[in-house]
Amino acid sequence: MMYVIDLFSGAGGFSEGARQAGAVVILAVDCWQAALDVHAANHLDCHHWREEVGGHPAELAGRLRAFIGANVPAGQLVHVHASPPCQRLSKANRSSRDTDVGLRLTRFALDVVQAVGCHSWTIEQVSAPAVRKLMDDRGVKYRHLHFDKYGVPSIRRRLIASSVPLDDLPVCVAPPLTLREVMTVAGMQPPEGYDAQRDGSSKPTRRRLDDTSYTVTTRAPVLWNDALGKELALPHVVRSLLQTFPPGYKFGKHSKKMVANAVPPEMSRRLLLHVMRHNSDAPTLTTAGDRSRAST
Ligand SMILES: C[S@@+](CC[C@H](N)C(=O)[O-])C[C@H]1O[C@@H](n2cnc3c(N)ncnc32)[C@H](O)[C@@H]1O
């Protein structure tokens, strides 16, 4: 059995994939109450810590080790995942001051996952030069994953740093669904004339509906009508399917941002299965609980 701690959990995209991979998600940490409420509604037996992390990494790592000692049976595998926020690192905010702020929580996440000393960890972030430099400087292995190669029907691309090698992460043989196919799964046909998609940026580009979707953000993808020069937002059900959330996933308010923020569950399911295969030979963790049991 693998137990998972999800740092910067948001509404639980990563957690949902971990659950689907057969792991038990035991703790989600985030500062956004509405996202934790959604996480809690979908991951009933999970503990939730609402807090703004980013202080001393050793302090949080110590609390996580104590939590593991109290909640994970001895000898079980523990994986820690972190998805620190990426807004300040993305192309739209590339001033050096913003990059410093964005990098701080990524460095913090790396410090924490390494200090906890569990069997395995992953970090998801945008592939900004500053992030790559951080990982290179720390000798951490990472890969840029094109999520459409792993069963996600969008061109989302992210840097995944991991304690286990990702070179042999199996790709999906079948091509990804197109936006039109995902809309069909959702029971929706594009309105007449809306036969393209746009990326919602200030200098929008366009793709066909018969192409894979643009990365899901709060502004994209949108349907586009060339003749009218008008765009149309996609409904939540399509956006959440594009991010591979299961149809029954319970979202509340702010679902647009939560869906856009998420690690697509299908991506995290595949990542976790891969980590489990690598971890199956790993020695077991000595948790705080193990130590206290051993000393009595
Ligand atoms: C990229 S999103 C995480 C998405 C999530 N992994 C998923 O798959 O659904 C980043 C999250 O970090 C949270 N966050 C930002 N700064 C934080 C901080 N200092 N402490 C805790 N959470 C923070 C945000 O509320 C947001 O939910």
UniProtKB/TrEMBL annotation:
Uppermost EC category: transferase
Residue segments, region Disordered: 188-212
Classification via InterPro entries: C5-Methyltransferase, C5_MeTfrase, SAM-dependent_MTases_sf
Keywords: Methyltransferase, S-adenosyl-L-methionine, Transferase
GO molecular function, one term: DNA binding
EC numbers, comma separated: 2.1.1.37
Ranges of compositional bias, category Basic and acidic residues: 195-211
A Pfam family: DNA_methylase
Keyword set includes S-adenosyl-L-methionine: yes
Gene3D superfamilies assigned: Vaccinia Virus protein VP39 (3.40.50.150)
Keyword Iron-sulfur belongs to the record: no
GO biological process: methylation; negative regulation of gene expression via chromosomal CpG island methylation
UniProt name for this protein: DNA (cytosine-5-)-methyltransferase
Organism from which the protein derives: Tribonema minus
